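#random but structural
TW: two for the price of one
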Amino acid sequence: METFTKTLCGLEVRVGLFGKQDAKRTVLFFNGIGARLEAAQAFSDHLPECRLVTFDVPGVGESPAPKMPYRPALLSKMAADLLDDLEIKTVDVFGVSWGGAMAQQFVKDHQERCETMTLAATSAGMIMVPGHPGALMKMVTPKRYFDPNYMLEVAPKIYGGSIGENIEQLEKFAELVMGGSTRGYLYQMLAGYGWTSWLWLPQIKVPTLILMGKDDKIVPATNGRILKSRLPNSRLEFLDCGHMFMLTKPEETTQLMRDFYAEH
């Protein structure tokens, strides 16, 4: 892993590069809400043939919170500028949960730079089937990102699946999302407010792999069917887990991605 600080669109962000520079493929990774770039390490370890590029969005991890809220289009522009600086022409785009919206926005804005898109545990934004009310209420507050004990208590109820069965795994996840700022979390929430990809998804011709957890309490699996119905060149796969299948089933998740990459 290599990390450094870079100014993109006038904002200072922390950038992370994982894997070998001469890897066969480069993956542009958009993280879930509140998660620091170190969370990408697990994916990189299971995708040794890929180089992974990511960054802490403003207000998360070691990227300072901006003075004003931002929209997904800004993060799309920041990602494109970063790829230009790194002299990377094309990428496989990968977005998880909140980052799935950012991935869709990037592909819309820069479709010519995208070999494939993988969307994990995400939706078309405001046009979606909402999650369990209890899980959504706990997501309104960023408390779980600042209180490790609270995270350990509520994570199984929020994310579903087997996330609560392995305490060491859960503690590792809590470590990966600690930090950032309350303002940064609020701005992430506001970035998705009112945003939807519903109208323009049919314009995206990039081959797309959609991964959904069967027991996802935040983004019900049926949202994957909605995405597939709107994306003309897509495949939908379900995993027997909740929202955090990328953490609880990394081998199965990355094998699906690896097979998909081999086809494209």
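TW: number two ↓
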Amino acid sequence: MRKSQNLTKEEVKQYYCVHLPKYIQNEWKQLFTKQLYCIGKDISYDNNLLLQYGFTRQRPPNPDLGSSQYSFADRTGRITLWGFGMIFATNNDGLFLWRHAFEPKLLKINSLSPHVWDPDQLPKCTIPKTTEEILLMLKLLVKSINWLKRYENWILSMCGQSYRNEQLRSMYSFDKPNLRLDESWSDLSAKFEKILKKAYI
């Protein structure tokens, strides 16, 4: 998957700190990891909540060698989900979001194979460097956050807050008992939008 500039992990971390405060990166990483964990639980729920939402599913030929790919598109963008991460795209511009690290990378959607089961099968992903690329990264991050907020609102309307509370407690027992992922995404979206406006608009 890391088919981008030849930077060490520490150099990558330092690079993103130039554009986004470390505490914002950590907040996103913790929330996104929880979100993908919960989405995994949504898949195993009765009738698969992702399919009910409108996603299509493609399973890998060998379930031991990859993660199912879930795809969805609406007027705001195109979402592709795996256990290891997510792509949010508008038109041909996509942003790959790794599950366990804040390392958003740009890619061209027309280079994405319709059958991806493993991160190594992703096309070339690049760290944004130019002002235009950084602006695109931030815009796509805000759009992806807003979509995750809408998804969580839908989950609450379908299953209620107690459904999410049970999942989060099972994996993250140290969390406050009634963590609202939709509200957390809304708060984080406001922070990203403030950075976007202050630095690039």
